[in-house]
Design a protein that fits this description.
Blueprint: H1 29-40, E1 43-45, H2 55-58, E2 61-63, E3 72-75, H3 77-86, E4 93-95, E5 110-111, E6 126-129, E7 143-151, E8 165-169, E9 181-184, E10 189-190, E11 194-197, E12 219-221, H4 229-237, E13 244-246, E14 250-256, E15 260-261, E16 272-273, H5 275-287, E17 290-297, H6 301-314, E18 317-321, H7 332-338, E19 342-348, E20 350-351, E21 356-361, E22 377-382, H8 386-405, H9 409-412, E23 416-421, E24 432-440, E25 447-450, E26 467-471, E27 482-487
Parallel strand pairs: 3-19, 7-8, 14-17, 14-18, 15-16, 18-22, 20-24, 23-25
Antiparallel strand pairs: 1-2, 4-13, 5-12, 6-8, 6-9, 7-11, 10-11, 19-21, 21-22, 23-27, 24-25, 24-26, 26-27
Helix pairs in contact: 3-8, 5-8, 6-7
Length: 491
């Protein structure tokens, strides 16, 4: 399942190049790589570094013969998001009990099989009669009708209504043949045998006509819609108790890093608790996916590649955190390629969340019958810094997962809104920045309070936040200014 290394590495830290040993300080790394490229046929190109980048961090850019020409590098997060979305599709459909379908995504359009209501019905407890019989009624000259039937909800009329008669009926009961109006109890005077009406009533008053809510044959709902309370009730009203829904994608989560400390392990100097695992799994579950923790692996290319390969056997999507920056032991991108993942985008022009690798594993290329679901398996290599990790999740990963869940295309990408910031952001960045904060959706003008800390590792400020505000590269904003923003999920 692993692909052989050697053709198609680009801008990955030197320690991740299989077969290239670390050299002494006196040895020029570029000469070593040139020897390697001479043997493999790869070509050396100049690194287009930006100010502020350490040339030794990224080393030399190799563009191999393995199809890397189309890979996006340090691109806008929307480009990476859209490119990943092009390669994925829903993971399949299934019938599910309606009682277990809350929040699931409808996989087939639903057509009404019958009218709702299926008969003319009364919206009140009261009396049904002919409107023409009371057209001259007044306080001075009321009209008294003889009660000839009693109809409870769930019952059927026992006789029709003729001149001078009325039916006593309950809320939801069918309106008997011959009657064309209903009057609530409180607007009449009545005994067990008679009802007296003191004002005219128009034909059709207080009668809910058959099909007034839903007409037989009409499309109730298209595919790609989340089943909420209203849709669940509508489906039940049509007798649909096992709708077709899209399967929930299974997302495998992998943590990388020799410093990661798991639950139950003894704290030690240089070790940190694994917060990314829980943040990612919770975000996936809240989005409507299933998640499984594959495990924590050390910073070593082969070990990470084996974990990825294991996840690809059972998961519909894979998320890794850590090992995507520019250090000697940031080996996740190389491990992704070794596991057969085609990297589509490497790095984002975004703060936080710049470091990352985004790719696909498409076994359909070798298996004509198709892989899992309707598309390739997306593999996301996210930053190990918690806030950067979760920013990239909401900006890039979540829309891709929503498409795999079966959402309609227009509902995969969060809607843009304009918000007024209640605090300043005075730091200029070379890349666009997503400020996390909380939007007050009840205000006439939607106002966002930026979180107090915006650092890459400050996961605590994500708690309670519900949106990201986008600050364009090279700009600052003052309190009271309006900027583009998007919500983190369904709020």
């Amino acid at each position: 399942m692993f692909s052989a290394p050697g053709d198609g590495y680009s801008r990955f830290p030197q320690a991740c190049f299989a077969g290239i040993k670390k050299t002494d300080k006196e040895t020029d790394k570029e000469d070593e790589l040139r020897k390697r490229m001479k043997k493999t046929g790869d070509s050396l190109i100049e690194e287009d570094r930006k100010p502020g980048y350490n040339p030794d961090d990224w080393g030399v850019c190799i563009k191999g013969n393995g199809g890397k020409e189309g890979m996006l590098e340090r691109c806008d997060f929307r480009q990476a998001r859209d490119l990943m979305m092009e390669h994925v599709g829903p993971v399949g459909m299934q019938k599910a009990p309606l009682s277990a379908c809350a929040g699931r995504i409808l996989a087939r359009a639903v057509t009404a099989q019958e009218d709702v209501p299926p008969f003319d019905r009364s919206p009140y407890d009261g009396y049904a009669f002919r409107a023409k019989d009371v057209e001259a009624a007044s306080l001075q000259d009321p009209v008294t009708l003889r009660i000839v039937d009693y109809i409870a909800a769930g019952d059927v009329p026992h006789t029709g209504i003729t001149a001078g008669t009325a039916a006593h009926l309950m809320t939801g009961a069918p309106v008997p043949e011959g009657a064309d109006a209903v009057l609530p109890f409180e607007k009449t005077r009545f005994t067990d045998e008679e009802v007296t009406i003191s004002s005219p009533v128009k034909p059709g008053s207080n009668v809910v006509r058959a099909g007034e809510d839903i007409r037989k044959g009409m499309t109730l709902c298209g595919a790609g819609v989340r089943i909420d309370a209203g849709l669940a009730g509508t489906l039940a009203g049509q007798g649909i108790f096992e709708p077709y829904v899209y399967k929930k994608p299974l997302v495998g989560v992998i943590s990388t890093g020799s410093e990661i400390l798991e639950e139950g392990e003894t704290p030690a100097p240089g070790r940190i608790y694994n917060s990314n695992r829980y943040a990612l799994q919770t975000a996936c579950e809240l989005a409507g996916c299933r998640s499984i923790y594959i495990g924590t692996v050390i910073d070593e290319t082969d070990t990470i590649a084996q974990a990825i390969a294991s996840a690809l056997k059972t998961c519909d999507a894979v998320i890794l955190s850590g090992g995507v920056s520019v250090g000697d032991f940031d080996c996740t991108p190389a491990a992704m390629e070794k596991a057969g993942v085609e990297i589509l985008a490497h790095g984002l022009a975004l703060k936080p969340g710049m470091a990352g690798a985004y790719g696909i594993f498409d076994d359909r290329k070798s298996d004509p019958s198709g892989g899992q679901g309707d598309g390739a398996i997306p593999v996301f290599g996210l930053s190990g810094n918690p806030a950067a990790c979760m920013t990239a999740f909401y900006a890039v990963v979540l829309p891709v997962l929503r498409k795999m869940m079966g959402f309609a295309p227009e509902d995969c990408i969060p809607a843009k809104l304009r918000v007024r910031l209640s605090g300043d952001y005075s730091r200029k960045n070379q890349s666009a920045r997503l400020l996390r904060g909380k939007v007050d959706l009840t205000a006439v003008v939607q106002e966002m309070q930026p979180a107090a800390g915006q650092g890459n590792q400050m996961l605590s400020t994500l708690a309670g936040s519900n949106a990201f505000a986008e600050i364009p590269a090279g700009t600052t904003v003052q309190a009271g200014e309006t900027v583009d923003a998007f919500l983190m999920g369904d709020i």
